[in-house]
Amino acid sequence: MLTALLILWPALAALLVLLVKGQGAKKVAFGAALVELLLGIYAWANFNPNVVEPQFLLNEPWVASAGILFKVGIDGISLLLVLLTVFLIPLIILASFKNNYDRPSSFFALILFMQTGLIGVFTALDAFLFYFFWEVALIPVYFIAAMWGGENRIKVTFKFFLYTVFGSLFMLAAFVYLYFQTPGTHSSEDQAFYALVLSGDTQSWLFWFLFIAFAIKMPVFPFHTWQPDTYTTAPAAGTMLLSGIMLKMGIYGALRWLLPVVPLGVSQWATVALVLAIIGIIYGAIIAIRQQDMKRVVAFSSISHVGLIAAGLFTLNEQGLQGVMIQMLSHGINVVGLFFIIDIIQRRIGTRDIAAMGGITQNAPFMTVCFMILMLGAVALPLTNGFVGEFLLLFGVFRYEAWMGAVAGITIILGAVYMLRMFQRVMFGVKNEITQGFTDLTASEKAVLIPLVVMVFWIGLHPNTFLSLSEPAVLHLLEVIKR
Amino acid sequence: MQELTIATNTDMMWVCLLIPLLPLIGFLINGLGFRRIPKGLASVVGCAAVIGSFVLSLYLFLSFEEQGNRAYVTPLFDWIYVVALSIPFSFQIDQLSLIMLLLVTGVGSVIHIYSAGYMSHDEGFGKFFAFLNLFVFSMLLLVMGSNYVMMFIGWEGVGLCSYLLIGFWNKVTPYNNAAKKAFIMNRIGDLGFLLGIFLIFITFGSVSYGEVFNQASQNLSDVSHGTIVAITLLLFVGAMGKSAQIPLFTWLPDAMAGPTPVSALIHAATMVTAGIYMVIRSNVLYTLAPETLEVVAIIGLATALFAATIGLFQNDIKKVLAYSTVSQLGYMFLALGVMAYSSSLFHVLTHAFFKALLFLGAGSVIHAMSGEQDMRRMGGLKKVLPITFLTFLIGTLAISGIPPFAGFFSKDELLAHVFQHSKIMWAFGLLTSFMTAFYMFRLLYLTFYGNFRGTEEQRHHLHESPASMTIPLIILAILSTIGGFMGLPEVFSENHMLANYLSPIYDFSRRAVPSAFETQHLSHEMEYILMAVSVAVAVIAIILAYVIYGKKRTVPAEDGEYSGLHKLVYNKYYIDELYNGLFVKPVMGLSTGLYRFVEKGIIDPIVNGFGHGVLGGGRWLRFLQSGAVGSYMLLMVLGIALILLLNFII
Amino acid sequence: MNEIPEVIRTIPLNYYLYFSTALFVIGIIGVLTRRNAIIIFMCIELMLNSVNLLLTAFSAYRSDPNGQIFVFFIMAVAAAEVAVGLAIIVMIYRNLRSTDVNILNRLKW
């Protein structure tokens, strides 16, 4: 029941928020998100990390005649993502407090509605239910980006929407095919899919159908071109939702519905997928070096980081997959923090152009510290969260194939290049007329950044808190894959 | 055989924990309280933290001997644990880490005290102490860690502090660029280090020193020779970055943009010797890979020689010292390459003393000259800065290898080992030594002798530095004078204190390759001859420097007046420009090119192509909707006819 | 009442086939070539009736009344169709002063 509550509460709260007129909506939304956070923490507290099976299971018939279930539950892998979602959503809502959007009640209701979709995706244990939530999560972010976005928003958002739906169709087709392969009266339950024994050829094309859907969402090179434009155009909250949580849907989907369902297909194509991911790592990082728009720098850096996570997925070893888990959290935290800082800068001085800035650190020491810590997390400095993930991921890739590890490792050099360049141009140097009157963080901004910074160090200093949660589930997953 | 024990004594654990923790606390206090804590308190907190850990290190050092010189590990907690890959957060205390602890905290304390005077006028005073403390914390993690990943934490941590401190005056763009360059070049090395760690784990199933070395020395897991060579080479790439060896050395001269105490602490005494520490720590692996050792020796020698030639013609006082540091680091790697691990560490120690002294002395000069660093604007400072001059002279004598100063003993021992390995290398080493003595005395004469060549305003401001700066100079001068006696050569004394003390850390190496450690002593006559030759070479260089810069009072020409070889060397062989053209520009070009031509020229158009395809298809297909009822009906009839036809055929 | 099928059976079945095919083709050609809506309409009726005729013929030859019942249904539906269709044509004529179908191409692309 707890899982169902986690899914339903934000949707109910969204309806409530819609009723509130004016700027009071954001407070109600924030309160609702905090309740959700408490629910998440309650789930964490009652979670038994030694059990492999999903906990807090709810298993009701949904489309009974077709054997489709409303089956949701939380195992170690789901739990980390649920925690990430419930942790980030209140911060994202709080981060939007100062933006004074039109129609605030719709805006905040959409964020909460999105949370329902996200939690649904991360807990669904039935293929069609997963697909349902997958699309549900897409709708609110489409409206957020299309209604409150910047210049050119309709075109960019439309492209994003169509691109993702295009990918989802492949997934749906694959699910339908798999559904009809299940014995008896058919079932779309996760275990039923895992139990299927399909020929290598079938798995081979099924792999690509599923991979394309997830690769577009992540996004993996070369399916990434919607991402920089969308991140740049969407309002800050939308960008944070997309980059912080939504792209994890793709990774999670691959963990739950790709690797264990078509293991033979994965073993056939893992090298190709890894090469694509590694190209993405280097490609994203190199392009990020010369971007002038701060959001674009982070957007391309995100392609690079996600490339590494995707590479970790296909290493199919313990370190790689645990790296995926921890890096999903780290990346979510870092990228949300970085986008928030960019939003703060944009609110203050009205531009995101790196060339126009300089010397901000002299006016905003507190922001400098937060920015620097998040940046160091992103460039994977030891004792910050990014290092644990990148270390495990690179090790996983290195174990899979040494030269791939070496090439993927170039990311730690290029990461330093683009991040330090941006940081230096924005924060250091001499103040100019644009950055002259820059003010340091306000209390509500601190309230967003401090939890993020704390998490950077928590994961960096004691990653076992989170690694131990997902370890049994990940090991079980590997058993299923290698059966 | 040195067995590692797990420390059970909780007192010891606390001491081990407190040593790095104190500077961390200092960092937090000064960092969080920056701009709120008064300068006096900030310096007290900063200095007390490091002096505190120095005292604790000393205590640890003494109690280590009391407890029978047994190395131990103090586990704190499991840091990363993923199935077989277990990385504990734990410290290893043995002879090597103790020496490094004393060096880092000792020299660190002296430099902290110096900074209290040197930085007293700076608005970022508290921030400076915070960063220095953070550096000491990272460096302590580096030397105390009990596994390679712990070393990597410190390794990257010191890189970060180096970045922060080089770019300390962050309003100045060239300084920021220097900082960025240092960080990125270090990262290149770090990647090698990281891959080395991966390979170590895959080969030995552990990253803890004790486990890895034990396995390597007995070759329990049947590791191929090629793997060991690969591991050591990868680790050495890391060392190249951190210790500024060819080809990753260009960041160190630029790093002189930072405040002078930083150059003394980070870029001379401690951080840059991390690479040497790492090789000594991994001595088993290196001993097993003679090919790598040969590479190490050649790169070390090449760096020593190359950097020394550049040092000959530099006019910036700190740049001369920077190239001299690069050159001396090359020396240390040369020693490592001929398996003279202890001699290398000996030189690390003496070098830390006299190079820190020289940098701090230079800082005192710069302080007096109101920030001027160009030696062509100095001269005749002997009378105004007597203490600085005297201590600086001691440092210069020490680095030049004049007995009985510290540098003589370490350099002599080092060169003797090189002589045993290869006469040619020894000759080049001697040449480097000659150049070192020459450029150091050139620096001394240009700075302290002759007439004052600065502006009137600078002359007006000339003053000896305050006590907080001169006392550290004196301490370091004493250390530079007597430091060499911890490793007297055989001809003078049977007891080489340092080598004997460090002996247990080579136990694994001895077990792995017993032949490599068979002592083959030089005859006493030979030793005397070698000593005499190296002293003679230094003296000739000093005389030469005296004739040119002391007696004739030659002052180097202004920039732009150089030609030919001189110009080439003065511009550092255009290595920076070469790297710029070879790496930086292509990557930048690639960045723009990929974005413009691949991203916006190929991939995105393909994606948009799908959209345009659908649009275009619609544009053509809509003509079927002609609106003419007749044509609809014709099509309908044709359709029915077609279906009937197909019905007949199929 | 048995006379009618017998009368029908006096003519060979093939003749009915030829005849109704001819009628149907005439209808099609009329539909395709004429532009006057009323004539097109009549041609459609012709096609319907050709089918009706065939249905009746088969029904008689097979002694199965279903075919003839079907014809009644078709006639009823056609009558309704005529009512609606003619009404539309009248409205079109009132608006456009013409019943030429080629004028009615407002729905093109």
Question: Descriptors for this entry?
Answer:
heterotrimer; B: mainly alpha; 3-stranded mixed sheet; 26 helices; 3 strands; 72% helix; globular; C: 109 residues; mainly alpha; 0% strand; elongated
Order of helices and strands of chain C: HHHH
Principal-axis shape of chain B: globular
Average the pLDDT over all residues of chain B and give the rounded result. 85
The fraction of residues in strands of chain B falls at under 5%
User: What does the radius of gyration of chain C come to?
Assistant: 18 Å
How do the strands of the widest beta sheet of chain B line up side by side?
Answer: 1-2-3
Tell me the number of helical segments of chain B per DSSP (H or I, 4 or more residues long).
Answer: 26
Tally of helical runs of chain C? 4
Instruction: Please give the most extensive interface between any two protein chains, plus how many residues each contributes.
Output: A-B, 60 and 54 residues
Could you give the distance between the termini of chain B?
89 Å
Assembly form of the protein: heterotrimer
Secondary structure blueprint with pairings:
The complex is a heterotrimer of chains A (483), B (650) and C (109).
Chain A lengths: L1 H18 L4 H22 L9 E9 L4 E7 L1 H20 L8 H20 L3 H22 L4 H29 L8 H6 L4 H18 L8 H8 L2 H23 L4 H27 L4 H22 L2 H32 L10 H4 L1 H14 L6 H16 L1 H26 L15 H19 L2 H18 L2
Antiparallel strand pairs in A: 1-2
Chain B lengths: L4 E2 L3 H23 L6 H28 L5 E11 L2 E9 L1 H24 L6 H20 L3 H19 L6 H32 L4 H10 L6 H18 L8 H4 L5 H10 L4 H8 L1 H5 L2 H22 L5 H21 L3 H28 L17 H15 L5 H16 L1 H26 L7 H6 L5 H16 L14 H6 L4 H6 L11 H28 L12 H7 L4 H47 L7 H21 L1
Parallel strand pairs in B: 1-2
Antiparallel strand pairs in B: 2-3
Chain C lengths: L2 H7 L3 H21 L3 H26 L3 H31 L13
Subcellular location (chain B): Endomembrane system; Membrane
Keywords (chain B): Membrane, NAD, NADP, Plastoquinone, Quinone, Translocase, Transmembrane, Transmembrane helix
Main location (chain B): membrane
Give a nutshell description of this structure.
Chain A has 483 residues and is mainly α. Chain A has helices at 2-19, 24-45, 76-95, 104-123, 127-148, 153-181, 190-195, 200-217, 226-233, 236-258, 263-289, 294-315, 318-349, 360-363, 365-378, 385-400, 402-427, 443-461, 464-481, and strands at 55-63, 68-74.
